[in-house]
Design a protein that fits this description.
Blueprint lengths: L2 H11 L12 H14 L4 H15 L5 H12 L5 H41 L6 H32 L3 H17 L4 H22 L22 H14 L9 H11 L5 H13 L7 H33 L3 H6 L1 H27 L4 H16 L4 H18 L6
Length: 404
């Protein structure tokens, strides 16, 4: 056995309750993770289900407790949790080569699709029906944000340490997303640090071991200037490294950057980008690839995707063997007890600027129907967005309202 295999085996045994999983070939990982990347419509819930079916139920590569522990650990990390889970499952089978191949296979199919759609929707003279489809699907995006926030609220409420503080964090996140999107990440981090400090003070009074406030790395509140590609990389990095609570939490920050600061897209085009990130397979964070395409073409789209997903690979490649310690770290749990509710509030709050980007009266009717379908009737996001896009096409072609 090589030294790399020995290291991987040792890391695998360090997982709580872990066992050495059967080794899958890299070709198998490429095929199976690529299949999930092609059919993974519906966001993180769909991705988790597909990964569980593959790794736990069908192939028995991981036990159910191992898989649930991996979900919990990935939820403690910033960035797209379902992507990190996909990378982690591949890492458990073949170490770092497996993680790299599995993660890439999971991400690339959606990237190809979304760049092709970006070229269609952001072209210099897209057909009228394309503009109508974008306006219709974009009108439903605020409803998707409300659905995403509602889906996270129940579990966070059950885990709350104190009701009043939990509500304050949610309100702070919502207010920041609705008003100062460019500073949203700092508000979320501040909520996490406040909760960490409160719990640390409480534990010191009771003689427990939660001492010190140690959050790293430190996050700079600076913006790269210079070339367009540097700016694209900075926006993408914030999406990949600072998105506590999932991809939707970073929408207000992205909207502020790409619409108001850099002017790469109009408000309507940004709604199109968010909708495309929801209806394409694979990670919803691929929205950032549309932003990169709008700024610098295909090169910008690829760069944005690479930068946005690099932190997820780094977290797994460098830290997967310590996931058990991460889950047991009370400081990480305390920080997330503040940052998590703030992120949920930010997801709800993102619906306000997204609604503000709507430009036609009929779009509000589409939004109302989407809210009923997604929040009250719990229909699927992809089908709702496709239906909203179809409604937009009909309105544009029959009533003759140009979406932009």
């Amino acid at each position: 056995m090589t030294s790399g295999q020995q290291n991987h085996s040792s890391a695998a045994r360090s997982q709580p309750g872990s066992r050495e999983p059967p080794r899958a070939s890299l070709a198998t990982i490429l095929r199976e993770w690529g299949r999930i990347g092609c059919i993974g419509f519906g966001g993180p819930p769909a991705h988790i289900k597909l990964l569980r079916d593959l790794c736990v139920d069908r192939r028995r590569w991981l036990s159910a407790p191992e898989f649930e522990d991996a979900i919990a650990a990935c939820n403690l990390l910033p960035g797209p949790a379902s992507t990190q889970l996909a990378i982690f499952c591949a890492w458990r089978l073949r170490g770092r080569p497996g993680a790299l191949i599995g993660g890439a296979a999971f991400i690339i199919p959606g990237l190809i699709v979304i760049l092709a759609l970006a070229a269609l929707f952001l072209g210099s003279a897209p057909p009228l029906w394309v503009l109508g489809a974008g306006a219709g699907a974009g009108a439903a995006v605020p409803a998707v944000a409300v659905r995403a926030g509602a889906g996270l609220t129940g579990a966070s409420w059950q885990r709350r340490s104190q009701t009043a503080r939990w509500l304050c964090y949610v309100i702070a996140g919502a207010a920041a997303a609705a008003t100062v999107g460019a500073w949203l990440v700092l508000v979320i981090l501040a909520c996490g640090l406040v909760e960490l400090a409160v719990q640390a003070a409480s534990d010191r009074r009771h003689g427990n071991g939660l001492a010190g406030i140690m959050i790293s790395p430190a996050f700079a509140a600076t913006t790269l200037t210079g070339s367009v590609l540097l700016s694209v990389a900075w926006v993408a990095f914030k999406v990949g490294a600072l998105s506590f609570g999932g991809g939707f939490v970073i929408i207000p920050l992205m909207q502020s950057d790409v619409v108001n600061h850099y002017h790469w897209m109009s408000g309507a085009q940004f709604l199109d980008a968010v909708a495309l990130g929801q209806i394409t397979p694979g990670p919803v964070v691929q929205t950032v690839a549309v932003v990169g395409y709008a700024a610098a073409g295909v090169i910008g789209g690829i760069l944005a995707s690479v930068v946005a997903f690099s932190p997820s690979f780094a977290f797994i490649l460098l830290g997967a063997g310590r996931f058990d310690k991460l889950r047991a770290d009370r400081r990480a749990g305390a920080f997330l007890s503040g940052a998590g509710p703030a992120a949920i509030g930010a997801i709800f709050g993102s619906a306000i600027p997204l609604t503000g980007a709507l430009t036609h009266d009929w779009q509000y009717a589409v939004l109302g129907v989407a809210l009923i379908l997604l929040v009250l009737l719990r229909r699927g996001v992809v089908l709702t967005l496709v239906g909203a896009g179809a409604a937009g096409v009909i309105m544009t072609l029959t009533v003759g309202l140009a979406p932009r």
